[in-house]
Design a protein that fits this description.
heterodimer; A: alpha+beta; Acetylcholine Binding Protein, Chain: A; six-stranded mixed β-sheet; five-stranded antiparallel β-sheet; 11 strands; about 30% helix; about 35% strand; globular; disordered N terminus; B: mainly alpha; 14 helices
């Protein structure tokens, strides 16, 4: 007589029932903050030297960020936003500015950002804008092509390139052009990760936002 | 009240844990919204569709708040979209639904109570968000970082509460499991020494006497009831429901509601602050409670699933009563451990921004 199996059987039934019940509800959490991205890639002497971001936040996050900072009817200026901008820039530095610049298969590193390289302000349409200037530690030749990705790996923030004006190339060698590549559909394994994230109550783990992100491809033939 | 003494003893340790660098990171994450809620997502398939719905709903809610300025009927759209948002949103990480479901699995079989608990937790969550934004933003004109700090404290309290409840459940369910194990093995030992056919002439008389004694007065009364039932030939009969249900207490349930519901959800905070900025705080409150109803629907369904799963498991468990009891206690014990795991996971992964 196997005494373990009857105990195991209900556990299995339980798991099955739970899976069945939970399956339709396996929705991912979703981003809470939406950012429209416009970026500039700067060149000097034919090499990539900088990435400049102008991010515009959605109106809900914008009203959250501006809450309590200015008198009614007044816009929150860069000065007023300075402490919050500094805090955000500090957090961004630890996360690589949500920016992945891959040239020749290598991820470029950015130097430290100083005061004045970034600011935050409330625009006249009441949306909050964040600006940051990133300089490459080592200027790098673009090669035949390179890619720029802006993404929060945990996907709390949804970064989308601006439809009309996603990326500008500044002082680029002639012939360089930029295009947007949309994300690939998710694979089975990714779906499983999401399911796990449901059961563990946690974010689906690192790099998830990357899979969701659009990529700028710059070709310099 | 041993359980509440141990709970209060655990709390300072948890606060110390949460003060660790992992939790401190929370504050440093850029463009954060308080409540310690995760991101996550997908683009393809059903999950992608649901997530896209979420994003669309957020925009629709924002649009309806704008529309309210000129068109009061937009409130219905706002409430409808808020409700839908809640239904989808509760399915995402970080909503205490797993806590409620596990709690139900560990301690209850009554559907109505499960749904009531889910409902109360969701309403409390809405209420906490309204109170937080109402007090912090409306009265003290707090800034985003200040509201984040307040929300993070609430989230911390919620995580600690969940862990404390999980530990308490683990202790009580562990004890019940041990008791069930003891009963089970005592019965098996007795049966092995002198099975049901003990009266057959080739069995030693002494063993037969032991079994008669055992069956006449088993420790938990369940086996006795079954033994007296002529239809119950030693397999597939339901144990006394009251015995299976042991362990539910309204005090424990209230603590669960409090712990699961005391964490405001980031989405609700955003909607409220946005409505406030538009001068339409009341509409924001309406939207948030509509969201809470939606959340309650999803968590209620999950509590239902948990209870149903447990019943199904019990029905599928074959064998004598002591074994069914053992299975029930085992499942409850595992569910209790799950509650602890959820609490710990929420606490530590909160640090990475989830």
């Amino acid at each position: 007589m196997n005494s373990a199996s009857p105990a195991r059987r209900p556990a299995l039934a339980l798991l099955l029932a739970a899976l069945l019940a939970f399956a339709p509800a396996v929705a991912a959490a979703h981003p809470h903050v939406w950012v429209t991205v416009r970026s500039k890639v700067g060149f000097a002497d034919g090499k990539v030297v900088s990435v400049t971001h102008d991010w515009v936040f959605d109106e809900m996050y914008s009203s959250f960020a501006t809450q309590g900072l200015a008198k009614p009817g007044q816009l929150v200026t860069r000065d007023i936003f300075a402490p919050l901008a500094r805090e955000n820039a500090g957090g961004l530095a630890e996360l690589g500015y949500f920016t992945t610049l891959k040239i020749g298969g290598k991820t470029a590193e950015f130097g430290p950002v100083k005061d004045g390289d970034y600011w935050m302000e409330e625009r006249t349409d009441h949306l909050v804008a964040f600006h940051v200037d990133l300089r490459l530690k080592t200027p790098t030749a673009p090669g035949p092509y390179f890619s720029l990705l802006v993404a929060d790996p945990e996907y709390f923030i949804d970064f989308e390139f601006d439809d009309n004006d996603p990326v500008a190339l500044v002082s680029a060698p002639s012939g360089c052009s930029a295009s947007i590549a949309k994300p690939k559909p998710l694979e089975g394994q990714d779906q499983q990760k999401l399911t796990e994230s449901f059961f563990t109550n946690l974010a689906p783990g690192t790099n998830f936002g990357f899979k969701m992100a659009s990529r700028v491809i710059v070709a310099c033939p | 009240m041993i359980r509440f003494r141990s709970l209060s003893r655990a709390a300072p340790a948890l606060v110390a844990l949460a003060a660790s660098p992992a939790f401190a990171q929370l504050a440093q994450r850029p463009f954060m919204v308080g409540g310690g809620e995760g991101g996550g997502g997908a683009s393809g398939g059903l999950t992608g569709w649901i997530m896209e719905m979420q994003s669309q709903l957020t925009r629709l809610i924002a649009a309806d708040v704008h529309a309210l300025h000129g068109d009061p009927t937009a409130i219905w759209g706002l409430i409808g979209f808020g409700f839908a948002y809640g239904v989808f949103h509760a399915a995402g990480p970080g909503h205490g639904k797993a806590v409620i479901a596990s709690y139900m699995m560990a301690s209850d079989r009554a559907l109505r109570r499960g749904i009531v608990l889910s409902f109360l937790a969701a309403m409390l969550q809405g209420l906490v968000a309204v109170a937080l934004v109402g007090v912090a933003a409306l009265i003290f004109n707090a800034t985003a970082p200040e509201m984040n700090a307040a929300a993070d404290w609430l989230a911390l309290a919620s995580c600690s509460g969940v862990i404390a409840i999980g530990l308490w459940l683990t202790v009580t369910k562990g004890r019940a499991l041990l008791a069930a194990l003891r009963t089970h093995f005592a019965r098996r030992a007795a049966l092995a020494a002198a099975p049901v056919y003990a009266n057959a002439p080739w069995r030693p008389a002494a063993g037969s006497g032991a079994v008669v004694a055992f069956r006449a007065g088993p420790p938990d009364g369940v086996a006795a009831a079954a033994a007296d039932d002529p239809a119950a030939c030693g397999h597939l009969h339901a144990p006394d429901p009251a015995a299976l249900e042991a362990g539910f207490s309204w005090r424990g349930a209230a603590a669960t509601v409090l712990a699961a519901g005391s964490r405001p959800c980031s989405g609700a905070i955003l909607v409220l602050v946005f409505a406030l900025a538009q001068g339409l705080f009341a509409a924001g409150i309406g939207a948030v409670f509509a969201m809470s109803f939606g959340v309650a629907l999803t968590t209620g369904a999950l509590a239902f699933a948990a209870v149903f799963a447990k019943r199904l498991a019990m029905r599928m468990a074959t064998g004598d009563d002591s074994r069914i009891m053992l299975a029930a206690r085992g499942v409850e014990f595992l569910a209790a451990l799950l509650v602890v795991a959820f609490g710990l996971a929420l606490l530590f992964v909160a640090g990475s921004g989830a």
